[in-house]
Amino acid sequence: MKSTYKVLTSDADLFAAALAQVKVYVVQLIEGKPHVIADYAGPVQRWTPEDVLVAGMCYSREGFEFRVRVPKKQE
Question: With the C-alpha atoms ordered 56, 61, 64, 65, is the resulting torsion angle positive or negative?
Answer without folding.
Answer: positive
